[in-house]
């Protein structure tokens, strides 16, 4: 029987490596490639039917419109009825919550009446949409003025229900990234420029808070909350000045303040010799007719001697688009040692063990041949180091260009997951004897002399790196964090040190004869061992199918199963065609091409709609919800993970999904907040960047009294979590 790793899979695995780098079309795309708003959403109007205006939007690929952001206003002599809009696609927006969107095209009908003497159908149509692939940018609300001839028989003006006005909504300051938009409003300012907040103590028990805004910006009165920090027994009583009544599509008739708000606040309670007070102010604000901002938070430390204070952003996640690089907390030498140790421990992780079984068989086959053992070790190490260097270089370059890539993010791509599952299945079938590649077990020397041996060893190293990326071992977190903040050369050295650690056991066996002599001699028992080791490969393929199910649902898994059957048929017929003629070998090619068809369709399956968190007692991560909990003095345990992250699942099984952890949450009054990074999610990517982490898992404990979050180790223990939450609750 032949037992070398499939050298003929070299080309396929080379393609797999390039897929594993997570390169996606459009990464180099910048905002200068975005279409003008009127080209992204082409509006046509048809007024041929008396009393009914028909509107049609042609929506460019990768763009969408919000259903709830469409607004219609009649011009002189025109009264509009309620617009008739089709149901849209359900979509969870990070700022707006559950919304409906339109892709490709949408039609709307708008009834109207006209006053006597009206000769033209004049109205304004406002809409808003976004670009859904990189760069993920939303346009400010855009308004088009329509001036159409009235058809004969247009109905006269009678009382009608006008379409309700809709506000711009809370799309966030990031909408201004396009610069000067093509709409009617100037680009929105960053929140710290649009809403300046200052405060002073006019008397020991009297504070004055002042919001200063450029012309056209406003804040909501009922969305302003003030809370004292570390001031038990004291309360705040604001005295609201008169504002402007404003009709908002989401909140109805509300009171807002334009340009400037001076808010007197009375401090009730005994100051007991305090020299200063710390106030956390939370508020919502908008650009009139433009964008609205997510909930903003400012912390003010106000001296009671009458001097003024300016607000500072609190130490809570605000998901900035580009965080500053983390300071280097360790030296290069320490980072290299940590990387070496982390790579060595990776050999014990369940995601790597199946691939190591391939390498173990080849090493055992070497027997007493020291030269063969060295050759195995060298080519395997070359594959590992080349893959780590390529993976690290690609991640660093793309992150430097502003793309949120990290350790293991290639498994966010369903196509990569599907291809990797098929590779694992093929390797398992080879080890089970269904198909044979390379030299036979009884002719080890001839096999090592052939090209298949070194190539098989090299691509075993490639595969080991690909499947190792979902895992994070102890020490890896600090080493990778250093790599993402260090200069390029130092970062590459860290990635190479990880590779050396991963390859170290086989290097030692290959170059230390005393260790090699401890290995058992090859024999017939090894064929049974090889067949037994095929089952971890099958389990890995099953695990990847489960990951795919969470990413794209049952349809994607069905396509993967069809591809798996076709692949097994291809390999079976490949084995039978060895002694047959060209027609039989041509059938192998046909079957291989058929296998690619469901893989191609797999990449087209849309993401299913699902709740971010469906477990009782768990809160889905969002920056706004986290800020609200922190403002309410609630300790929070934030868990950012992914279905493809083996370390995340191990931590859940041993620590987080236990009755002891749930009791700990009750005892400390903490909230368990969970974020899912199985698929690409810009909000979670921003949170990871804020904590300068190269990937998941990320665990952060936020204390009760608005202190900075404490980041925990990637490998959790019950005692570590208990100690962190107990400290956060006091």
Put the structure in a nutshell.
This protein has 730 residues and is an alpha+beta fold.
Q: What do these coordinates show?
A:
Helix content is 39%, strand content 22%. It is flat and about 95 Å long. It has four domains: 7-26 and 330-602, no CATH class; 37-165, Thiol:disulfide interchange protein DsbD, N-terminal domain (Immunoglobulin-like, Sandwich), CATH 2.60.40; 191-292, Thiol:disulfide interchange protein DsbD, N-terminal domain (Immunoglobulin-like, Sandwich); 618-728, Glutaredoxin (3-Layer(aba) Sandwich), CATH 3.40.30.10. The strands form seven sheets. The chain has a five-stranded antiparallel β-sheet with strand order 16-19-13-12-23. The protein has 730 residues and is of the alpha+beta class. The protein contains 20 helices and 28 strands.
Range of strand content: 15-25%
Strands across the major sheet, in which order? 16-19-13-12-23
Number of strands: 28
Total of DSSP H or I helical runs spanning 4+ residues: 20
First-last Cα distance:
66 Å
The secondary structure category is: alpha+beta
Q: Quaternary state, please?
A: single chain
Q: Describe the biggest sheet?
A: 5 strands, antiparallel
**Which percent range fits the helix content?**
25-40%
- The radius of gyration computed from the alpha-carbon positions, rounded to a whole number of angstroms, is 31 Å
The tally of domains stands at: 4
User: What is the residue-averaged pLDDT?
Assistant: 75
Question: Unreliable runs, pLDDT <50, ≥5 residues?
Answer: 1-31, 158-184, 312-328, 438-452
